[in-house]
Structure formats: C-alpha cells, structure tokens
Please model this.
Amino acid sequence: MRKTTTTLAIGLIAIFAAACGSTGGSASPAASAASGGASNAPSAAASASPAACAKDSLKTATAGKLTIGTDNPAYPPYFAPNTGGTLTKPWKISDPTNGQGFESAVGFAIADRLGFAKSDVQWIVVPFANSFAAGPKTFDFDLNQVAYNAQRAQNVDLSEGYYFGNQSLVVLKTSPLAKATTIAALKDYVYGAQVGTTSYDAIAAVIAPSKKALVYDTNDLAIKALGNKTIDGVIVDLPTADYITNVQVQNAVIAGQFAGGTPEHFSAVLAKGSPLTDCVNSAIAAMTQDGTLDDLASTWLPFQDTVPVFKP
Amino acid sequence: MTSAGRAQRRGPDPRAVRSSLIALVSTVVVFGGLAWIVVHAPGWPAVQASFFNREVFEESLPGLLDAFVVNIELFMTAEVLVLGFGLLLAIMRSLSGPVFLPIRVMSNAYTDIFRAIPGVLVIFVLGFGIPGLGLVDPRTDQRLFGILALTLVYSAYVSEVYRAGIESIHPSQEAAARSLGLSRLQSLRFVIVPQAVRRVIPPLLNDFIGLQKDTVLVSFIGVVEIFRYAQIESAATYNFTPYVAVALVFIVVTVPLIHLVDWLVARDRGGARPRAAATPSRLGAL
Model:
C-alpha cells in the first residue's frame, strides 16, 4: 500500500517536472510573441481591413450575434438598471442589455462599429477569473474593468484601452484619512482591496503602508471590512469609488485619487489569437479618434475631474 | 521466509525478480500512458502554458513560501488549542450521572452544530461579524479570528475522536480505578484519558491533516496566506501555475504526516498485544 502511494507520488512529481521542463523552452517565445503583438497592436489595428471586419465575415461565438461577457452583479456606473428599476434575467443590480452605463454603452458602440444591430448583441455572465481561464471562450469579448498589463496579455488578447482611469482611496467620513491630501500622510494605516486587481498593486506600489494590507475576494467584502473598521481605507478605481460612496456606503467618501505615471487602462478581453481582436481594436481606435469614448466617459463617469488628486 | 527462499540464498529469487520487473513495466506503462494522453491532448499547449509555466513557478515560489508561514502559524496555534478544547468537550460528554445532564447536552449540541456548519461560514461570521459588534478592538488581527474559527470547528471533530477513544476503554478500567479509591475525575485523568489518547492518535492526526488544509479558508476574511497570495500572483500574471505550486507545497508538508498516520495505524494493528501488556504495568505504577 505504502509502496503504491510512493510510486504514485514519484509519478506525479515526474509528470510535473516533465511538464515544467518543456515549458521552459516554449514559454519564452510565446511571451515575446505576446509582447510583440501588444506593441504592434496599433499598427495592426490601423491595417485591419474593413472587409475583414464586416459583420458577415466575422467568426463570432454565436453566428450572426455578438456575445459580450461581464460579471454579475454588474455595477453602476459601468452598467445601469432599466428605467423603473427592472432587470433582465439573470442580471442583478444593473442590466447590461440596455446600453445604459459606461461599459454597456461602450459594448454597444463597438458592436455598432462592427455592424451589429442592438438586437444582435447578447450579454452573458462571465466571472472575472473565468475571463482569463485557459481554453475556448464563450464570449466574443468581455468588458469587466480589466486593467491591461503585459503579463495578463500572455494568456488572452487585451484590446486597446477604452478607458484610462486612476485608482482612488475610499474612507469613512469620520476617519482622519478623509482630510489627508498627501500620499505621505497615508502611511500608517491598514488598507484593503479586492484580490487580483491593480488596486491591490497600487497599495504596495503607491502608498507602501507600514501595516500589512488585507485582500478580499470582492470589493463588497472589503467595504464590509471598512464599515467594521477592520481596515481604514479601500483602494478601488475611481468609477467604482464613486458608486461605493454614492450608493453602497452612505458614510464613506473618496479621500482622493492617485495620479501620475501612466494611468491604467481598461481593455476588452478576447480569447488568445481571436479573429476579432484586430476588428475590436480598430473600432476602439476609431472611437478614440472621433471623441466617442470621451463623450461616453463624461456622460457616465463625470467625477474624474472633480475628485482631488493626492500630492506626493 | 520460506524454505525455498532459504535454499537459494546465494542468488536472488527469480520469482521476486520477475514480479519486480512486472511491477516496473506496469508502472512505466500506466504512468507513461497517462502522461502521453495528457501531453498529446489538443488543449495541452494552452494548459501547459497556464498551469505548468516554469517561469511563473520560479517567480512565485519564494513569495508563496513566505505566505505559507501564515498558514503554519494558523494551524500550529489552532492544533494546540483544539487538543485542549476537544478533550474538554469529550470529557464533558462522557461525565455520567443525572446531575451532569446539562453539561452533556451542551457538549452534544456543540459538536452537532459545529460539525454541521461548513468551516468557511464560521470563519466568515467571526471575521466579519465580531468586529461589527464593536465589543473588541476592530483592529484585532484577522488571523486571530481565523484561529478561533478553526479551533471551534475542529474541536467538534476532535472531541468525537476523543470520545470514541474514551468509550473504547473497557468499563472495568474505571471500576478498578474507583475501587482503588480514585475519584471519578481522578480515574478519568490518570486511567481512562491516558489510554484513550494513545489509542486515538492516528485519527487525531487525520483531523489535523484536514485542519492544515483548511487554513487556506482564512483567506476569505482578508488574510494574505498562501492561497490568497497565489490568487494575487495568478491574477497578476493571468496564469494558474501559482495554484499548482500551492498544491505542491501542501503535498510536501502533508504527505509525510499522512504516512506517519498510516505507519502508526499499521504499528497499532501489529502491536496490539504489547500495548495491552503495557497497560497493567502503567496501572501498577500508579
């Protein structure tokens, strides 16, 4: 019995070693191909011929339809409920299918550029972590406030940015942090963020607090911990902070936003090597150029100019 | 062992050689075949790049091991507390006599409830509920709530293990102890429990294996332990290799413990007689 398990363990380890061993060689070309692809994206976008992006020649997940993914619940200001508060099943809090809210509007605008009528667009639930799982995708592209980074781009195609935004700090109104204006004043507190977000990265990279940060599965849990005073502040991107302070937690405020460096940008997620990537990129590039995206941002995300910026 | 074996002492037993060879070939064929199937699956390159990426593995391992220190703190502390609290519950439950009925009921209800509730819920309720009450310092280290929750849950299991051990001691042991003039508690303390504990060490360690693995659930209340760290790494790289690394760390830590348990069980089975002989001598020492 014991012998069998030992053999089994050795077998397992051998398989992993073999698996890893051959990865070492093949991973780096894949990585360089990915970063090459990312830096070439603008030119690729520019050269994507209109014919290749015509609706009928696009290979979508469901033929003739454009399938867009996002997480459920879908939150304002990226999404909004229907007038009267009704929701299409299975959506909670907001309804992506109505074109209201920033990402819903962007989704339909991209669809429009690709030649899909509003009725040809379907929205499906894609949990954040599933958007970058290996294997085939059930969506054509996914809009879920996914911030671009080069490592993420190795596993999936990340489009041109459709929004450039800063991180911000949400605190309770009663907290001394509510009056802080400099990053130096933020050091000695406990912060929380959602796991796997660039918000979490910003805690270490921008604030570098003296106390260990806590990391939660969702922003909702981080906010609960803020209400409990387990943590002093939650780091989220600015649009989410606006929603939290206006809707979710009445006694919370945005202490400020973190500017400087290159602001992160949100990208649509597509399957690695998706035939749609170039078409989505050229649609976004066109909308950046003609000001469509700016208009959508100032319609749905008007607070970006009013929240104070932390000084170093 | 057999006369045939003794007769051929000079050379290896051909039958043994043959069965070793068969075992070797069969092992190579089975594992090689499985590996071949996996490696030649159509999705293998994608799976390999996202689950078995050496660069990500090497990059994330040092941080994972640092984060694992938190898991070690959690389970070491919880295990010590569980040993004490579980025993207390078991003793409460094995007190006989009508006057102790409320204590038995309490212990019964406790083990029923805490074995029924999923551990992650206990962690959740303590981690988010207790600070909300405003009775304790809201800045209390979240690890303490994790330790408390694991202790509450695993004490319920361990008390059942202890109880089984206590009930497996023949009633004549207590009768003999009482006839020597020991009180009920004294006979529990000096006669019943020492024998019971030794008998239940393997199942006790088994529960500790579960506890060690459940320390990852403490990540739910924000503590950055090995699993949460793997999530952070995984999200930063869009790669699942850190999870595989966590699995390997747990295999390395837990498999020796599992084998220790197996060995103890085997020893107990083989050595039942010597221990039975040891019991009276220990009693004599009293």
Observations:
- Confidence is low (pLDDT under 50) at residues 21-47 of chain A.
- The first helix of chain A runs from residue 2 to 47.
